[in-house]
Amino acid sequence: MANNLPLGPLMVDIGGHELAPEDIDCLCHPLVGGVILFSRNFHDQFQLTELVASIHALRSPRLLVAVDQEGGRVQRLLDGFTRLPSARSLGCCYEEDKVMGKFAALAAGYVMASELRTIDIDISFAPVLDLFNPLSSVIGSRAFSSDPGVVGVLADQVVRGMNLGGMCGVAKHFPGHGGVVGDSHTELPSDPRSLKALQAADLVPYESLLPRGYAGVMVAHVVFPAVDGNPASLSGRWLAQELRGRLDFDGVIFCDDIMMGGAVAALHSVGSRAQLALSSGCDVVLVCNDRLATNEVIRTLESQAWVNPQVDRLSRLAGGAIDQTVDVDECRMRLAGLAD
Hints:
Helix content is 37%, strand content 11%. It is an alpha/beta fold and 340 residues long. The longest helix is centred in the first third of the chain and has 21 residues, at 98-118.
């Protein structure tokens, strides 16, 4: 075990069901601070528990282990896990019965977090704070509502459940991905709205995040040309002035995977993308599904002698204890009729 090695600014992936020698070499690099798991890393709960334990055993303090388990069509771990409803299903429930909708959202957050914490996963990148827009297929059912007030209410209930389950919330995709048709996985979407218009709608759910149980925000590869020519993920205007400044957010800022098409379209060099994301205000940059690109990013940051200045922020995201007084079976029962 590598002791007293501070968490670095990169979150990377691994290839399979167990750590290969090349994975271990990468994860022990001081620029790495976490691992994101995908469906390919999961065979069954026993295997996954062993994999997570092997990742945590590599270093002290432990690397953060994350997964996308928001529910609906974005749930990487299925067999042996509760099938979680989409945010839109929770939103529809709330529209029919506000009390039941809020309880269902809390139940979804608790079930998600407690099941992941049972196998020692630290982070689920959830909830989605984007506004629902039928034109945005990439978000679509991942959004609670088109009403920013409803989004805030239900997202906060999910996060309350996550907190009870031993996890902090990570809001995404700042400053909003719901207003564009394009999919940032494959292209760089552009949203023409003004900052004033965004502040009156998409940005409303991002106000006062820390007191509401959120410790992180993931930033979108979407460009808002009326605000800045760079996508939000690579923009000091968005990160330093709006998120850190006006919104007073002091948690971890995650840059979404810089191998996504939206990031590639903005800047060709993967090393330069990582460097710009960090210098613009991101604390952690995801580099996924390309080990050669990960190695290039590491070389670029090594040449700049990059040191993560915000290690204390990352420690807030380490998984905590599950509140065992919550009846998880009742929570699952409440969700049974909502799963997509």
